[in-house]
Design a protein that fits this description.
The protein is α/β, with parallel strands linked by helices and 333 residues long. The chain has 2 domains: 215 residues, Class I glutamine amidotransferase (GATase) domain (Rossmann fold, 3-Layer(aba) Sandwich); 48 residues, no CATH class. The protein contains 4 helices and 15 strands. The strands form 3 sheets. It has a 9-stranded mixed β-sheet, sandwiched between helices. A hairpin with a 2-residue loop joins strand 14 and strand 15. Helix 2 packs across helix 4. The longest helix is centred in the last third of the chain and has 25 residues. It starts with 8 loop residues before the first helix and ends with a strand.
């Protein structure tokens, strides 16, 4: 006889009640940082006679203050430090970097972001504050077109038309003083289609970010009189204005997202579960893996001591094949 067990009435009442609560309850996420603060070091340069980084950051939603040149940056309590275009030419820049370049790296390690816009390569080819694992050298190459190497990166969200591979906002200097070589950075925009001469890069350092750009978005870039007209209805000035406004809005969201990330020590880490070792039986074939640096023709052997058996037995390599960067072989014990 088949017996049917029914749940108690209380269970049938509680189940729909619990489902109803789950479906109707809204989870409210409170932002970790109510407002983002930016410290800016900029000056009116000889090339553009302009300096608008502070204004653009404020329009994007940052609370802006000048970067104090006599105080360690890691003690400012700001979220992002912005080094304006051609600020390396300022008379106090070299002294500031000699005093605080190491502290700038500590600022990034603790979760801050540094953004450096374009600089004159003859004055500063390599940023002095980069940690040892990072390097970026500027050169004299400019470009009218920016190729999008990382279309999903938040800094380039909405900068170009959907599915577009490139974007331009100036007939000659959309990219200005690009990078010739780099180490440790992720290339976001470049002056050439296949990634050469990066124009916008980002690197992770500790809990923060370092953004290096060959973009003078905080300056007024004069359009030459003989420059070709844009292909679309908008003028070069309108295109530049739209690009700049969108970039600084993206920067605000990106800095907030970086600040909201937990520190590396608190991030969840996946544990790799290693399978239990299988007892080796003499005379049976066993799979093994040879590192990729071992050449196919390299003779190899191993020594194995079966469980409960005195002495050692030698095995020979056979059936070698290469797949996905590893040598796969069979070994007979």
């Amino acid at each position: 006889m088949r017996t049917i067990h029914l749940r108690p009435l209380s269970d049938w009442v509680l189940i729909p009640l619990f489902v109803s609560l789950v479906m109707t309850t809204q989870v409210v996420a409170f932002p970790r940082f109510a407002e983002l603060t930016a410290a800016v070091y900029e000056h009116t340069d000889q090339w553009t006679n302009s300096a608008f980084a502070s204004d653009l950051l404020a329009q994007a939603g940052f609370v802006v203050q000048p970067l104090p040149l006599n105080q360690p940056p890691s003690q400012l309590g700001v979220d992002v430090i912005v080094l304006g275009s051609f600020v390396c030419e300022h008379e106090d820049y070299e002294r500031y970097m000699s005093m605080y370049k190491d502290d700038l790296a500590r600022f990034v390690t603790s979760g801050g972001t540094i953004v450096q816009f374009t600089q004159a390569d003859q004055n500063e080819a390599d940023a002095p504050y980069l940690p040892d694992a990072l390097a970026a050298t500027r050169c004299d190459v400019d470009a009218d077109t920016l190729w999008i190497r990382s279309p999903g990166h938040p800094l380039v969200k909405g900068l170009a038309a959907p599915n577009a591979q490139s974007v331009s906002f100036h007939p000659t200097r959309s990219a200005w003083e690009t990078f010739d070589t780099q180490t440790g950075f992720h290339v976001i925009l470049s002056a050439e289609q296949h990634g050469r001469f990066p124009a916008l890069m980002e690197a992770v350092h500790g809990s923060g970010r370092i953004v290096s750009a060959a973009l003078a978005l905080d300056k007024t870039i004069t359009v030459p009189d003989n420059a070709p007209k844009p292909s679309g209805p908008a003028s070069w000035a309108d295109m530049q204005q739209a690009f700049v406004a969108r970039f600084f809005a993206n920067l605000h969201d990106h800095v907030g997202a970086v600040r909201a990330e937990p520190p590396p020590s608190l991030r969840s880490r996946r544990r790799r579960l290693m399978p239990s070792p299988t007892p080796r039986v003499p005379g049976r074939w066993w799979p093994c893996r040879i590192p990729r640096y071992m050449h196919r023709s390299t003779p190899a052997s191993f020594w194995h001591r079966p469980a409960g058996s005195p002495g050692t037995s030698s095995g020979s390599i056979s059936g070698t094949s290469y797949n996905s960067g590893m040598w796969s072989t069979r070994t007979q014990t």
